[in-house]
Amino acid sequence: MLKTLAEEEAAQAQAQAPEQEPKPEAEPQPQPELEPQPQPQPVAAPGPTALTPAQAFDALYAFGAPALVRQTFLLTGRREQARESVERAFQAAWERWPEVARDRDPVGWVRATAYEYALSPWQRFRPRHRHPEPPPADPGDRTLLNTLLRLPARHRRTLMLYDGVGLDLPETAAETEASTPAAANRLLHAREAVAARLPALADPQVLHRRLAELASNERLRAAEPPAVRRGGERRARLRTRAAIAFTVALIGTTALTVRTAPTHYEPPVSPGQAVRGVPHRVAPGALSDEELELRQKLRDQVQDGPERLLPRPE
Q1: Region entry Disordered: which residue ranges (predicted)?
Q2: What mean pLDDT comes out for the span 132-148?
Q3: Total domains present in the chain
Q4: Is residue 38 part of a domain?
Protein backbone atom coordinates (compact mmCIF):
# COMPACT_ATOMS: atom_id res chain seq x y z
CA MET A 1 0.00 0.00 0.00
CA LEU A 2 2.88 2.41 0.83
CA LYS A 3 4.36 1.57 -2.51
CA THR A 4 1.16 2.44 -4.31
CA LEU A 5 0.88 5.83 -2.60
CA ALA A 6 4.47 6.68 -3.46
CA GLU A 7 3.90 5.84 -7.13
CA GLU A 8 0.81 8.07 -7.27
CA GLU A 9 2.65 11.06 -5.68
CA ALA A 10 5.50 10.63 -8.17
CA ALA A 11 3.05 10.58 -11.07
CA GLN A 12 1.31 13.76 -9.87
CA ALA A 13 4.63 15.57 -9.39
CA GLN A 14 5.69 14.63 -12.88
CA ALA A 15 2.43 15.91 -14.36
CA GLN A 16 2.74 19.25 -12.53
CA ALA A 17 6.33 19.85 -13.60
CA PRO A 18 6.63 21.89 -16.87
CA GLU A 19 7.70 19.92 -19.76
CA GLN A 20 11.34 20.71 -20.57
CA GLU A 21 12.10 21.29 -24.23
CA PRO A 22 14.94 19.22 -25.51
CA LYS A 23 18.13 21.23 -26.01
CA PRO A 24 19.21 21.55 -29.60
CA GLU A 25 22.29 19.66 -30.38
CA ALA A 26 25.36 21.84 -30.91
CA GLU A 27 26.32 22.24 -34.53
CA PRO A 28 29.70 20.77 -35.36
CA GLN A 29 32.39 23.42 -35.60
CA PRO A 30 34.05 23.58 -39.02
CA GLN A 31 37.50 22.09 -38.85
CA PRO A 32 40.30 24.25 -40.37
CA GLU A 33 41.48 22.89 -43.67
CA LEU A 34 44.89 21.37 -43.44
CA GLU A 35 47.49 22.37 -46.03
CA PRO A 36 48.51 19.47 -48.20
CA GLN A 37 51.78 18.01 -47.10
CA PRO A 38 54.44 17.88 -49.86
CA GLN A 39 55.00 14.39 -51.08
CA PRO A 40 58.58 13.20 -50.53
CA GLN A 41 60.47 13.18 -53.81
CA PRO A 42 62.36 10.00 -54.63
CA VAL A 43 66.07 10.52 -54.23
CA ALA A 44 67.81 9.73 -57.51
CA ALA A 45 70.89 7.63 -57.33
CA PRO A 46 74.04 9.59 -58.14
CA GLY A 47 74.99 8.93 -61.77
CA PRO A 48 78.51 8.68 -63.22
CA THR A 49 80.37 11.95 -63.31
CA ALA A 50 80.98 13.25 -66.82
CA LEU A 51 84.64 13.33 -67.74
CA THR A 52 86.33 16.32 -69.28
CA PRO A 53 87.99 15.82 -72.69
CA ALA A 54 91.42 15.79 -71.06
CA GLN A 55 90.36 13.17 -68.49
CA ALA A 56 88.76 11.00 -71.18
CA PHE A 57 91.91 11.23 -73.32
CA ASP A 58 94.13 10.34 -70.35
CA ALA A 59 91.94 7.31 -69.61
CA LEU A 60 92.15 6.14 -73.23
CA TYR A 61 95.92 6.65 -73.26
CA ALA A 62 96.42 4.75 -70.00
CA PHE A 63 94.29 1.89 -71.33
CA GLY A 64 95.73 1.49 -74.82
CA ALA A 65 99.20 3.03 -74.98
CA PRO A 66 101.27 0.27 -73.28
CA ALA A 67 99.87 -2.49 -75.49
CA LEU A 68 100.20 -0.38 -78.64
CA VAL A 69 103.87 0.32 -77.92
CA ARG A 70 104.59 -3.40 -77.63
CA GLN A 71 102.66 -4.19 -80.82
CA THR A 72 104.44 -1.47 -82.76
CA PHE A 73 107.78 -2.82 -81.53
CA LEU A 74 106.95 -6.18 -83.13
CA LEU A 75 106.21 -4.38 -86.39
CA THR A 76 109.40 -2.30 -86.50
CA GLY A 77 111.91 -3.98 -84.19
CA ARG A 78 112.86 -0.53 -82.83
CA ARG A 79 111.88 0.58 -79.36
CA GLU A 80 112.25 4.34 -79.80
CA GLN A 81 110.41 4.30 -83.10
CA ALA A 82 107.57 2.32 -81.50
CA ARG A 83 107.21 4.86 -78.67
CA GLU A 84 107.34 7.79 -81.07
CA SER A 85 104.75 6.23 -83.39
CA VAL A 86 102.28 5.69 -80.56
CA GLU A 87 102.82 9.20 -79.20
CA ARG A 88 102.28 10.74 -82.65
CA ALA A 89 99.11 8.68 -83.06
CA PHE A 90 97.72 9.85 -79.73
CA GLN A 91 98.67 13.45 -80.53
CA ALA A 92 96.68 13.16 -83.76
CA ALA A 93 93.80 11.72 -81.74
CA TRP A 94 93.93 14.67 -79.32
CA GLU A 95 93.82 17.13 -82.24
CA ARG A 96 90.71 15.34 -83.56
CA TRP A 97 89.29 14.41 -80.18
CA PRO A 98 85.59 15.13 -80.93
CA GLU A 99 85.82 12.72 -83.86
CA VAL A 100 87.82 10.07 -82.00
CA ALA A 101 85.64 10.26 -78.88
CA ARG A 102 82.53 9.41 -80.92
CA ASP A 103 84.25 6.58 -82.80
CA ARG A 104 82.97 3.11 -82.00
CA ASP A 105 86.56 1.90 -81.47
CA PRO A 106 88.87 4.74 -80.35
CA VAL A 107 91.73 2.31 -79.66
CA GLY A 108 91.41 0.96 -83.20
CA TRP A 109 91.57 4.50 -84.59
CA VAL A 110 94.81 5.18 -82.71
CA ARG A 111 96.22 1.75 -83.59
CA ALA A 112 95.70 2.29 -87.31
CA THR A 113 97.38 5.70 -87.12
CA ALA A 114 100.34 4.33 -85.14
CA TYR A 115 100.84 1.43 -87.58
CA GLU A 116 100.74 3.77 -90.58
CA TYR A 117 103.34 6.06 -89.02
CA ALA A 118 105.61 3.20 -87.94
CA LEU A 119 105.54 1.44 -91.32
CA SER A 120 105.92 4.60 -93.40
CA PRO A 121 108.64 4.20 -96.08
CA TRP A 122 110.38 7.46 -95.16
CA GLN A 123 111.31 6.05 -91.75
CA ARG A 124 114.31 4.31 -93.33
CA PHE A 125 115.85 7.67 -94.27
CA ARG A 126 116.04 8.91 -90.68
CA PRO A 127 119.47 9.02 -89.02
CA ARG A 128 118.44 6.69 -86.21
CA HIS A 129 117.65 3.97 -88.75
CA ARG A 130 121.34 3.67 -89.64
CA HIS A 131 122.23 2.34 -86.20
CA PRO A 132 120.71 -1.05 -85.27
CA GLU A 133 119.19 -1.46 -81.82
CA PRO A 134 120.18 -4.29 -79.48
CA PRO A 135 118.12 -7.43 -80.18
CA PRO A 136 116.15 -9.29 -77.49
CA ALA A 137 118.23 -11.24 -75.01
CA ASP A 138 116.41 -14.56 -75.47
CA PRO A 139 117.56 -16.48 -78.58
CA GLY A 140 114.03 -17.68 -79.34
CA ASP A 141 112.64 -14.15 -79.13
CA ARG A 142 115.47 -12.89 -81.31
CA THR A 143 114.77 -15.52 -83.97
CA LEU A 144 111.03 -14.81 -83.96
CA LEU A 145 111.56 -11.04 -84.22
CA ASN A 146 113.98 -11.45 -87.13
CA THR A 147 111.46 -13.72 -88.86
CA LEU A 148 108.73 -11.10 -88.46
CA LEU A 149 110.94 -8.31 -89.76
CA ARG A 150 111.74 -10.31 -92.90
CA LEU A 151 108.07 -10.37 -93.87
CA PRO A 152 106.68 -7.65 -96.15
CA ALA A 153 105.16 -4.77 -94.23
CA ARG A 154 101.60 -5.56 -95.30
CA HIS A 155 101.93 -9.25 -94.41
CA ARG A 156 103.52 -8.38 -91.08
CA ARG A 157 100.71 -5.96 -90.22
CA THR A 158 98.01 -8.46 -91.19
CA LEU A 159 99.65 -11.19 -89.10
CA MET A 160 99.93 -8.85 -86.11
CA LEU A 161 96.27 -7.77 -86.28
CA TYR A 162 94.86 -11.28 -86.75
CA ASP A 163 97.16 -13.51 -84.70
CA GLY A 164 98.56 -10.86 -82.34
CA VAL A 165 95.70 -8.51 -81.51
CA GLY A 166 92.96 -11.06 -82.18
CA LEU A 167 90.81 -9.25 -84.74
CA ASP A 168 88.63 -11.24 -87.10
CA LEU A 169 89.29 -11.31 -90.83
CA PRO A 170 86.80 -8.57 -91.91
CA GLU A 171 88.10 -6.17 -89.25
CA THR A 172 91.68 -6.93 -90.26
CA ALA A 173 90.84 -6.27 -93.91
CA ALA A 174 89.09 -2.99 -93.04
CA GLU A 175 91.98 -1.71 -90.93
CA THR A 176 94.57 -2.60 -93.58
CA GLU A 177 92.35 -1.08 -96.33
CA ALA A 178 92.21 -4.32 -98.28
CA SER A 179 89.52 -6.72 -99.37
CA THR A 180 88.78 -9.78 -97.26
CA PRO A 181 90.27 -12.25 -99.80
CA ALA A 182 93.42 -10.11 -100.05
CA ALA A 183 93.78 -10.00 -96.25
CA ALA A 184 93.29 -13.80 -96.06
CA ASN A 185 95.94 -14.32 -98.74
CA ARG A 186 98.44 -12.11 -96.87
CA LEU A 187 97.73 -13.94 -93.63
CA LEU A 188 98.32 -17.37 -95.21
CA HIS A 189 101.61 -16.25 -96.80
CA ALA A 190 102.79 -14.75 -93.51
CA ARG A 191 101.98 -17.93 -91.58
CA GLU A 192 103.74 -20.06 -94.16
CA ALA A 193 106.87 -17.89 -93.97
CA VAL A 194 106.94 -18.07 -90.17
CA ALA A 195 106.29 -21.83 -90.13
CA ALA A 196 109.01 -22.44 -92.74
CA ARG A 197 111.62 -20.99 -90.39
CA LEU A 198 109.99 -21.89 -87.07
CA PRO A 199 108.00 -25.14 -87.52
CA ALA A 200 106.92 -25.06 -83.88
CA LEU A 201 104.80 -21.99 -84.61
CA ALA A 202 102.73 -23.57 -87.37
CA ASP A 203 99.75 -23.74 -84.98
CA PRO A 204 97.99 -20.32 -84.85
CA GLN A 205 97.32 -20.70 -81.12
CA VAL A 206 101.00 -21.28 -80.40
CA LEU A 207 101.93 -18.35 -82.64
CA HIS A 208 99.50 -16.10 -80.79
CA ARG A 209 101.00 -17.11 -77.43
CA ARG A 210 104.57 -16.57 -78.64
CA LEU A 211 103.76 -13.11 -80.03
CA ALA A 212 102.24 -12.15 -76.68
CA GLU A 213 105.30 -13.46 -74.82
CA LEU A 214 107.71 -11.64 -77.13
CA ALA A 215 105.84 -8.35 -76.66
CA SER A 216 105.64 -8.79 -72.88
CA ASN A 217 109.35 -9.57 -72.46
CA GLU A 218 110.30 -6.08 -73.71
CA ARG A 219 110.08 -3.45 -70.97
CA LEU A 220 108.69 -0.60 -73.01
CA ARG A 221 107.32 2.48 -71.30
CA ALA A 222 105.09 5.12 -72.80
CA ALA A 223 105.21 8.80 -71.94
CA GLU A 224 102.75 10.38 -69.52
CA PRO A 225 99.39 11.54 -70.96
CA PRO A 226 99.85 15.26 -70.09
CA ALA A 227 103.20 15.31 -71.88
CA VAL A 228 101.61 13.76 -74.98
CA ARG A 229 98.79 16.31 -74.94
CA ARG A 230 101.23 19.21 -74.57
CA GLY A 231 103.36 17.85 -77.41
CA GLY A 232 100.33 17.63 -79.68
CA GLU A 233 99.24 21.17 -78.83
CA ARG A 234 102.77 22.47 -79.46
CA ARG A 235 102.93 20.78 -82.86
CA ALA A 236 99.53 22.20 -83.76
CA ARG A 237 100.70 25.72 -82.86
CA LEU A 238 103.84 25.30 -84.99
CA ARG A 239 101.80 24.16 -87.97
CA THR A 240 99.42 27.07 -87.53
CA ARG A 241 102.27 29.58 -87.41
CA ALA A 242 103.91 28.01 -90.45
CA ALA A 243 100.63 28.23 -92.36
CA ILE A 244 100.23 31.88 -91.37
CA ALA A 245 103.81 32.69 -92.43
CA PHE A 246 103.33 30.94 -95.76
CA THR A 247 100.08 32.83 -96.35
CA VAL A 248 101.72 36.17 -95.54
CA ALA A 249 104.64 35.40 -97.88
CA LEU A 250 102.23 34.41 -100.65
CA ILE A 251 100.21 37.61 -100.20
CA GLY A 252 103.40 39.73 -100.22
CA THR A 253 104.68 38.05 -103.37
CA THR A 254 101.35 38.56 -105.09
CA ALA A 255 101.24 42.25 -104.09
CA LEU A 256 104.81 42.80 -105.34
CA THR A 257 103.98 41.14 -108.63
CA VAL A 258 100.89 43.29 -109.10
CA ARG A 259 102.85 46.43 -108.20
CA THR A 260 105.71 45.82 -110.63
CA ALA A 261 103.77 44.26 -113.49
CA PRO A 262 103.30 46.44 -116.66
CA THR A 263 99.94 48.17 -116.98
CA HIS A 264 99.76 48.15 -120.78
CA TYR A 265 100.80 45.93 -123.61
CA GLU A 266 104.23 46.55 -125.07
CA PRO A 267 104.72 44.88 -128.42
CA PRO A 268 108.02 43.13 -128.78
CA VAL A 269 110.71 44.79 -130.90
CA SER A 270 111.12 43.01 -134.17
CA PRO A 271 114.62 41.77 -134.94
CA GLY A 272 116.76 43.98 -137.17
CA GLN A 273 117.29 43.24 -140.83
CA ALA A 274 120.13 44.26 -143.12
CA VAL A 275 119.21 46.92 -145.76
CA ARG A 276 120.84 46.50 -149.09
CA GLY A 277 122.06 49.37 -151.30
CA VAL A 278 122.95 51.81 -148.51
CA PRO A 279 126.65 52.39 -147.94
CA HIS A 280 127.98 51.73 -144.53
CA ARG A 281 128.63 54.73 -142.33
CA VAL A 282 132.32 55.37 -142.00
CA ALA A 283 134.18 57.37 -139.44
CA PRO A 284 135.66 60.79 -140.55
CA GLY A 285 139.28 60.63 -141.58
CA ALA A 286 142.13 63.10 -141.19
CA LEU A 287 141.62 66.78 -142.28
CA SER A 288 143.16 67.97 -145.49
CA ASP A 289 145.48 70.97 -145.70
CA GLU A 290 142.69 73.26 -146.88
CA GLU A 291 140.45 72.17 -144.02
CA LEU A 292 143.20 72.72 -141.52
CA GLU A 293 143.86 76.21 -142.91
CA LEU A 294 140.17 77.12 -142.77
CA ARG A 295 139.87 75.90 -139.23
CA GLN A 296 142.83 77.94 -138.12
CA LYS A 297 141.48 80.99 -139.87
CA LEU A 298 138.11 80.66 -138.17
CA ARG A 299 139.68 80.34 -134.81
CA ASP A 300 141.81 83.41 -135.25
CA GLN A 301 139.01 85.63 -136.55
CA VAL A 302 136.56 84.60 -133.83
CA GLN A 303 138.95 85.67 -131.12
CA ASP A 304 140.40 88.88 -132.68
CA GLY A 305 138.25 89.74 -135.68
CA PRO A 306 134.76 91.10 -136.02
CA GLU A 307 131.88 89.65 -134.13
CA ARG A 308 130.32 88.43 -137.30
CA LEU A 309 131.93 86.74 -140.24
CA LEU A 310 130.68 87.73 -143.62
CA PRO A 311 131.27 85.62 -146.65
CA ARG A 312 133.47 87.30 -149.23
CA PRO A 313 134.19 86.20 -152.69
CA GLU A 314 137.62 84.98 -153.41
Answers
A1: 1-51
A2: 87
A3: 1
A4: no
